[in-house]
Amino acid sequence: MENGIAPRGSHAIKEGKRTMIEQRVYARKLLEIDAAMADEYGNFIRWVKLLNISRMGIAFAIDDALAAGELYVFHFGLPGKEEQISFTASIVHTSTNTDVAKFRIGARFAKIADQDAALIDQYVNS
Q1: What is the tally of structural domains in the chain?
Q2: Would you give per-residue pLDDT tens digits along the chain (126 residues)?
Q3: If you write DSSP's letter for every residue of 73-119 in order, what string do you get?
């Protein structure tokens, strides 16, 4: 650590507190919209609240913890867009850091069509 700044991908200790260093490579955009969540076979499970989106994945709020590695399909429309987006995402992490529901889930895209990825890129960078 040099000048109180930890190398990328590590943790900094500042004034006795552990602080996580930002590791995102892609921009993300905050949002608060509903999305349909289905199992990996497309069977509807429930509605979830999307919290943010980036080129690599999403964060959403839900009342049940989900295990890392589980696959789910999401379907929704971005604000101001007519097109619907669908993709399969793999759960990466679960935390209780949310005011919207019991859990905040981070998921990475596992399968997404090129046109849906392009719509997300356009939305995030607008």
Answers
A1: 1
A2: 333 333 334 334 344 444 444 454 567 789 999 999 999 999 999 999 999 999 999 999 999 999 999 999 999 999 988 999 999 999 999 998 778 889 999 999 999 999 999 999 999 998
A3: EEEEE-TT--SEEEEEEEEEEEES--SSSSEEEEEEEEEE-HHHHHH
